[in-house]
Structure formats: C-alpha cells, structure tokens
From TrEMBL:
This is PorV/PorQ family protein. Residues 1-27 form the signal peptide. It comes from Eiseniibacteriota bacterium. It comes from the Bacteria. Keywords: Signal.
Amino acid sequence: MNRIAKSVVLNLVLAGGLLLSAGPAWSEQEAGGAPGAWLSTYVNARTLGLGGAFVGAADDASSVIWNPAGLSTLVPNELRMDVSRLFEDTTLGAFQFAVPGSKLPSFGLSVLTLRSGAFEKTDDMNNVIGTFRDTQTAYILTMSRAVTPRFALGVSSKLVRQSLEDFSGGGVGFDVGAIMNVTPAIRVGASALNLGGPSITLRDTKETYATQFRGGFSASVMRGRGLITGELDQTQKYGTSMHGGSEYWIQPAFALRVGMNDQRPSGGFSYRTGGHYQFDYGVSDHPLGMIHRIGVSYRFGGFYASAKAEPEVFSPTGENAVTNISLGSRTKSDTDNWELSLVNKMNQVVRKFGGKGIPPSHLMWDGKDESGMPLPDGAYSYQLMVHDADGRAVLSPAHTVEISTGGPQGSVPVIPIQP
C-alpha cells in the first residue's frame, strides 16, 4: 500500500468510526475526515444514551466538552473515565477530573485520546516495512465561575497533539460557554467551540478545527427522577444537527436512557453503588455498525447532602420500632433550609421533615405518615434537599428504607409425647 492509498484508507476508517453525532448537512462524506471531527463529536457513555444532547444539562465532569460553564453546576468533586472500541481497532478514551468551587472558580482537567489500529507501512516497491498508527490527544483545562446563583460562565483552553507515521504537530484553541437556570427545573446553555484553533501542521499543510456553536436545554421532571434534554449544533461549513434524549431513574440505583442522535437512535443505562460510584453504558446506531461505550465515575467530597437510614428494614410494632436517619450537608454559601421527603412506590410524599438552617445530625422515623397514621409495609425512598442562602440546592443520593411488620415465616415443629 503506497502513501496515498494509506492516507485514503485511514481517512475512511476515521470518518466512519469517529463521527458519532453527524446530521444530514454534516454528512460522513463531508466532515468524517475533517480536522478535529473526533473531538467535536465526542460523547461519553451517559451522553451517548442521551443522543448527544448535553449542552443545557452539563451536570458532570464531562460537561467541559459541551459547555465549560457546566462545571459551576457540579456539587461533589468528580473523577470520570470512559472508553470505547470503535471500528478497525480504533479506540477512544477519556479521563476527566472536576472540582467545584464557591468563592474560588470551579476547575476541570480532561484528557482525551484517539488511537487508530495498526496500518501497514510499505516502501515504493509495496514491500511491508512495518506499521504505523494515528494518535491524537487533547488536553483541556477548564475554569468556570458563577456570576449569580442562576448564571455561570466558563472557558476552556485546549492543547491538541497529533502524530501520524513520522510526522507530528500540535495546536491550541479555546471554548467558551454559558449556562442559566431559568427555573429550578429548567436550564438552558450555549457554547462556542474551537475558537482560534487548534490548527495543526503535520507536514506542510495547516489544518484547522471547525468552529462549532451549540445551544440547548434540560428539564428536570418527576421530582428529579427524570431528565429531558434537547440540543441544536451548528458547525462551520458543515451545517446543523439536532439531538434529544431522556433519562429516568427507575430506582435510586438504576436509570434508563433513550435518545435520538440526529437521525440515529441511541440508549443506555446507569447503575449507582455506594452513593459514590456510577457505571454508565451507552449504545448508538451507526452506518458501520453499533457503537458501544462504557464509563465509570467516582464522586467524593466537595459540596454535598447525605442521608442514611439505620436499620434499613424496621418494624414499628417490633423490636426495631424506629429507624435512625443520619443527615449531613455542605453548601456553597450559608445553609438556609433543609427538607427530607419519604416517598412511596406511587411517587407520593408520605412524610416530610424540614426546617431552617443546617439539618440535624440525625432524626427518627416511626413509620407513620403526616397525620400520624401507620403506613403499610413496603419500601419507601428518601432524599435530603438542602438550600443555601443564594437559592442553590444540593440533593443527596436517593436511598430506600423498608417497613416490615410481618415477621419471619416458618412452622413450629410438633414433637410427639412418649408415653
């Protein structure tokens, strides 16, 4: 395979494998091999399930890829890793770390790496003399600051390095973004990516990443258990694409997602464990086959709200007549008020605790509703919500506690009496 043929094959492979969110106007033929297409169309496992619509949500460490301002919405510190195996042994991985701030800005660091499979390297006589790979890495440093409790701005500086065969080069560019909470449940966001570059010269031709504009919204529904997102992307020279998705937490530990990545369906799920770890899986259709992506995140420290019941199963008529719910929180400004809600399987609030200032270290629940009537046996979910003096809210992970008055089942053996 001569050098020209190798270049054509490489571009075809990357065109199919890296264009994850292309629209009709931005077709594989036009933009699949465009400079920076792999980074402009990157989605992690969770966002892949949302159809690539995330600029208006931007609520995890990966938000810097869509909207740098999203870092200001984070509550705990977050460490996230994603990996995907694409086509022709091409792999794409990401490492992201975010630290939310209060008096200081929020900061984030992201490292994304694209690595192609091995291609044969030949001489002028078409003899194989080895192999080569195309490797591209982006280092993104992000800073975000909340101008008001409802409005934040962010900026990212990115350094991109590329090596192909015996050539290598690098370039620098910038992203900017804004995000605003229109209401406590509705958020809008916008961003402009690849401003002023990066521009990379591998041999003698400079290639510049296309500027991209994104705008969208997110809406929290069903008391925070559901999320609806929509996004419109406009890319310089290549046109417009639309994305949309939804997320629903069926249980506190398990969520399902479905989306439309422009004209291609997508979906996925998440599983949370221990209140700190989350496993994400995303899948999307593609002309060359299905795309699968997995990710793991760890949330710790920072600003938080926590609630934990002990014991998790109790009987108001038995030995464990109450459950002790431990509470804790840390807010970005002075704590204003708190509220703990217990919800039945019909998503109805059956008991509510709350007050001004910092929540107590613990409270007792005796299994009764607001009127003092005993509740039926079953599982009840609970979450602690804490508001600060600026109106921001932090919400604890949802947990379940169970009322069980039935007691153990079994039989009493009958021992015959010997005469």
